[in-house]
Design brief:
Blueprint: H1 2-7, H2 14-22, E1 43-46, E2 49-51, H3 54-63, E3 71-75, H4 81-89, E4 92-97, H5 100-112, E5 118-122, E6 135-140, H6 149-153, E7 155-165, E8 172-179, E9 185-193
Parallel strand pairs: 3-4, 3-6, 4-5, 6-7
Antiparallel strand pairs: 1-2, 7-8, 8-9
Helix pairs in contact: 2-4, 3-4
The protein binds S-adenosyl-L-homocysteine (SAH).
S-adenosyl-L-homocysteine binds next to strand 2, helix 4 and strand 4.
Length: 199
């Protein structure tokens, strides 16, 4: 999967490739989906939600430029898969999930897998997680018409915010915003994506 779907489609950061190879995706889906765990597509994880496509997880991790000492916020824990990948790249990952059942399952799974630097919380991630701010990188796994203000506020100077921007049915674009020394944000469009909505 990593060779064909991740590297083969243009992800080149060796640390991201290593993290993708190290995290067992089958551990994040139910037994009925295990067979398809290494096909490059989203899969159902309950509550009408999906585990992200591996390529997209790698793309967002690379775009967020996560470095070894970084503190990362993820919005939309889902299965915990992307959090586990980010956890291999960063110092710590704080991740927020709005569905209590998904947050609980993800936290358990991450603990069993020994992802000790990943903290899961049940709550509204569009408010961020101010207790641990500022973050060197923020990765949002659900699409929003605009960048939620609290996420910008919780971004460190020099920090990167990666988020799909767009409506539920309209075109969504993956956006990277950087917070400059001046406090200004610069925005780049990285490409078209499809995510469930940020609620
Ligand atoms: N990163 C996940 C995939 C997440 S799918 C993985 O690797 O499995 C998007 C997730 O965002 C869903 O679980 C959904 O419940 C959650 N979500 C949507 N809006 C949210 C919000 N406001 N706060 C926190 N989580 C939210």
């Amino acid at each position: 999967m990593v060779r064909r779907d991740i590297k083969g489609r243009g992800i080149s950061d060796p640390r991201v490739l290593e993290a993708m190879a190290a995290v067992p995706r089958e551990a994040f889906v139910g037994p009925r989906q295990a067979r398809r765990a290494y096909a490059d597509g989203p899969l159902p994880i309950g509550e009408g939600q999906t585990i992200s496509q591996p390529y997209v997880v790698a793309w967002m991790a690379e775009a967020a430029e996560v470095a070894p000492g970084d503190r990362v916020l993820e919005v939309g824990t889902g299965s915990g898969y992307a959090a586990a990948v980010l956890g291999r790249l960063a110092e710590t990952v704080h991740t927020v999930e709005r569905h209590a059942a998904l947050a609980k399952d993800a936290a358990e799974r991450l603990r069993e897998l020994g992802c000790d630097n990943v903290n899961v919380r049940h709550g509204d991630g569009s408010e961020g997680w101010s207790e641990h701010a500022p973050y060197d990188a923020i990765v949002v796994a659900a699409a929003s018409p605009d960048v939620p203000g609290p996420l910008r506020e919780q971004l460190h100077t020099g920090g990167r915010l990666v988020i799909p921007v767009g409506g539920r049915w309209s075109i969504q674009r993956l956006i990277r915003e950087r917070r400059a020394e001046s406090g200004e944000f610069t925005r780049e469009e990285l490409g078209a994506v499809r995510f469930v909505p940020l609620v």
